[in-house]
């Protein structure tokens, strides 16, 4: 069980590396959305292993609400960037 969590943490490092490396804001926001998804799945796994449904509810809220807000922000930033390039 600990091996599964270690593998999940290692998989979490991939989008963190991508977010630090890339300069495009759209790619950074997608990497952060991936981090939020992986973190919420890790929370759900821990809640099942501990048989604690309160932690699981927090994981579900993060999974459903957190990514929607992050992706909306990424879309707004991309549109603003596209509009600023059109004016030039």
């Amino acid at each position: 069980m600990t091996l599964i969590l270690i593998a999940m943490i290692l998989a979490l490092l991939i989008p963190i590396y991508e977010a630090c490396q890339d300069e495009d804001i759209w790619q950074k926001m997608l990497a952060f959305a991936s981090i939020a998804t992986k973190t919420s799945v890790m929370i759900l796994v821990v809640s099942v292993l501990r048989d604690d449904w309160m932690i699981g509810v927090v994981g579900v809220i993060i999974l459903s609400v957190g990514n929607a807000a992050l992706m909306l922000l990424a879309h707004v930033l991309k549109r603003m960037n596209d509009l600023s390039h059109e004016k030039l």
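Residues 53-87 form the longest helix (35 residues). The chain has three helices and no strands.
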